[in-house]
Amino acid sequence: MPAVSKGDGMRGLAVFISDIRNCKSKEAEIKRINKELANIRSKFKGDKALDGYSKKKYVCKLLFIFLLGHDIDFGHMEAVNLLSSNKYTEKQIGYLFISVLVNSNSELIRLINNAIKNDLASRNPTFMCLALHCIANVGSREMGEAFAADIPRILVAGDSMDSVKQSAALCLLRLYKASPDLVPMGEWTARVVHLLNDQHMGVVTAAVSLITCLCKKNPDDFKTCVSLAVSRLSRIVSSASTDLQDYTYYFVPAPWLSVKLLRLLQCYPPPEDAAVKGRLVECLETVLNKAQEPPKSKKVQHSNAKNAILFETISLIIHYDSEPNLLVRACNQLGQFLQHRETNLRYLALESMCTLASSEFSHEAVKTHIDTVINALKTERDVSVRQRAADLLYAMCDRSNAKQIVSEMLRYLETADYAIREEIVLKVAILAEKYAVDYSWYVDTILNLIRIAGDYVSEEVWYRVLQIVTNRDDVQGYAAKTVFEALQAPACHENMVKVGGYILGEFGNLIAGDPRSSPPVQFSLLHSKFHLCSVATRALLLSTYIKFINLFPETKATIQGVLRAGSQLRNADVELQQRAVEYLTLSSATVLEEMPPFPERESSILAKLKRKKGPGAGSALDDSRRDPSSHDINGGVEPTPSTVSTPSPSADLLGLRAAPPPAAPPAPSGAGNLLVDVFSDSPATQPGLGPSPEEAFLSELEPPAPESPMALLADPAPAADPGPEDIGPPIPEADELLNKFVCRNNGVLFENQLLQIGVKSEFRQNLGRMYLFYGNKTSVQFQNFSPTVVHPGDLQTHLAVQTKRVASQVDGGAQVQQVLNIECLRDFLTPPLLSVRFRYGGAPQSLTLKLPVTINKFFQPTEMAAQDFFQRWKQLSLPQQEAQKIFKANHPMDAEVTKAKLLGFGSALLDNVDPNPENFVGAGIIQTKALQVGCLLRLEPNAQAQMYRLTLRTSKEPVSRHLCELLAQQF
Amino acid sequence: MIRFILIQNRAGKTRLAKWYMQFDDDEKQKLIEEVHAVVTVRDAKHTNFVEFRNFKIIYRRYAGLYFCICVDVNDNNLAYLEAIHNFVEVLNEYFHNVCELDLVFNFYKVKENTSSGQTGQSHVFAVP
């Protein structure tokens, strides 16, 4: 290339630039520029032809004016003229002007393209390079259309000079990025790959850039580049620092080329050819080895260039993720950098390690640096480094170190930069949930999070904690207690009020027993925050208040007073006003009260009458409701529903959500006891009034009168229903579906493409009520829809199930509800069957399921002291009274989960009975109409062997065995 | 891949801007201001890398000038950092002790130096 010395500048231009710089004001500058523009215009318009130098100078001035931010509307033609000059400096200025100022002016483009074409064909490498640079700089579609076909030819032509090839490769790359469709793949692609072998390092570097981009879309076309890249890389890394002369940068041979080759290799999987792979692994090892060598120069440029290669090598090792040895070495190398005095290196090491942490081979090695990383989080001055440290902690977190990492992040959060708080909050929330072994820890963590950085806790985070608390009854009491305590802080964040309001509204009853957190105290605590909160939070609190009225009648008067206050009833906000008005009305009406006893149960006489009269005796049914005798017979034994704190039974159970309904009613035992005051008008639930467990336990009470009215009611359903012989066998998964319901009462019993069946049930003593929800998932009406309950064998003498008929048509997307009243007469082993038949689009459908009624539903938990327990245990020592099973755990052995399951099963859990705290001991009585069966159980988990031993002792042999089998399938 | 190169002085005056992506003029002006705001607040103890929108900026300060390269997030930080230095060395060689004014008066030569959009070899920046 022609040498351009400093003295070759344009004097006029330099003077002009100086003048502009000396201008004191913007106005002076504009004045000077206008003067110059007038001058140039007159020169260009003048009759005298300008020489090349003047043209160049004026075009250059125009360019400068343009770069200062002024519009230029002339001079393009003169610039195009410069393109055809034979002087390099003139041509160069012409191209520069075009590159900066060209737009899609059609007339001009044609002239420019013509000039470029001439230069490309000129065989003068300098001119060719200028033309190629111009194409690349403009990079427009029009340029692409005009030249995309020529450039590959120039690139692979045997006679092109190295500098031209280099420019052609980069120009093609630019065009390909702008409009890939204009660059056709062809036979030239294979030859481009071979440029990797070129003698000239500049050509190789440009070619690698081009191939890296092209191969992403057409990996197969360029596959051969892998072995060529490996051999090139190998030659570079093994060369001495002086071999490559011009391409050695501070004693590092060709650092940029090495980095580019390593990046190219990351576009492909590890080489399959063993020889290539061996050579590559050798290269990677060499790079890692060189990192350990003493530096050849103290200059930072040397170490930067060396480490650029090292980091790219590590990226490749991580990309392959198949060489455990290299991964661990990489990790150790990065570990050294973590304490390097160069901030850049610490930053990059943290960043790289983050990806290493996700590899199974190096995860453990990364974890060993936890203390250094935590230290970085605390002490780094640059926020971006601290952020990388937080990222790395997040990436290396697993069950073993979650508590430490989460607590460190929480501590960091107190002083963290505002810019990254929200991210840290999210990370903490995710880790806490992902690795929570014990959910009270999770609740603590999230509440801490709200306390420390409430502003940064997004809605999703506090929604999530509510979802988890709602779905896990083992943590509800703890959560209620913790939020109650947290709310006592004089200043607490609004998010805390939201969480507190929601949790106390749902589960405040679980801590209401403690006088320090009695319902009035809870209410006044929440209400003390009310006035400081936003509208949305106040709306939430109002909902909490109405729940309180429901849960705690003693707060009703106070809360009604609050709702009635003018500030609520006449609140300027429509939402708050509406809530206050509606809640106030609801609280005074009976809507929220418990359901009265069922009126719809028919008397046996009426049922008989109806059968005689046949269908159409609907009015007789209505009469029965007013028949006082039916109340006399059934009223005393009616259970009262315990749906007080749960949504109404028809609420969205079968909505579009696939998950089981979130607000499960309290488990029959544990939480149930705490709810006693709510059901105070249901004498049966008062422990003192029921048959005393002390006396009744273990004794089989024969019924005073074997023929109970219920037994008559249990006669097979109306004649229209198919007999048991008509129905098909239960579907294969019926047992499995049944198992899901042994320890819980609500959920989705069955689902296919047509139909979803949801269950919601409650049991008290020997009675139960079950709501079945049939949801039509299609858009077509089901016809002749008839669900019936069938008692196989002599089950009906053991279990009475009374069903209500449902409508025989179910519209598309609609849901119907069926209520079943259940009475357990004697102990039973097999569940009743539920047969569902209907016509869907003309085709008959039938389905038989097992109704989720198992003997344990009639459990009544019994608390007793250790001494009593052992005494009774010994009393039941006959071999046939005991059933034992040793089995392998099917689920993770989590004590909290086990506890929840046992409570769900129905027995009481007795603490401090078994000398081994790992073991679970429970007691309960199975209530049937005819007799009561005392039942003791013991579950011994063996975490090492992942086995359980379950022992049941009851006063009735088949019951022992049956319960043992049912329960064993739950773990 | 390089998205753009900016050379600015401490006052935020642009001495060189080279774009490898399509931006309209307003967008360019906004980017220039944002880069200036991001880079000038950092001190010597900080890294030479800043996250920037969906990209990152690798920058280095020489006397009163900030040399900034905006690249993709997965690009090699140190390689670009040294590319900046390499570029400065080339300028230094060419102008014999380069200073900011050289870039002002010889803007047309500097512009030419950066036309290819790919770094990585001493000769990319070779003097025309």
Number of helices of chain B: 4
Mean pLDDT level of chain B: 80
The percent range for strand residues of chain A is: 5-15%
Helix/strand structural class of chain A: alpha+beta
Short structural summary:
Chain A is built from 42 helices and 16 strands. With 128 residues, chain B is of the alpha+beta class.
Core attributes:
heterodimer, A: 971 residues, alpha+beta, six-stranded antiparallel beta sheet, five-stranded antiparallel beta sheet, 42 helices, 16 strands, 51% helix, disordered N terminus, B: 128 residues, 4 helices, 5 strands, 38% helix, globular, disordered C terminus
Description:
The complex is a heterodimer of chains A (971) and B (128). Chain A is built from 42 helices and 16 strands. In chain A, helix 23 packs antiparallel against helix 24 (439-453). Residues 1-7 and 616-725 of chain A have low confidence and may be disordered. Chain B is of the alpha+beta class and 128 residues long. Helices cover 38% and strands 27% of the residues of chain B. In chain B, a hairpin with a 2-residue loop joins strand 3 and strand 4. The two termini of chain B are 23 Å apart. At the A-B interface, helix 1, helix 3, helix 5, helix 7 and helix 10 of A face strand 3, helix 2 and helix 4 of B.
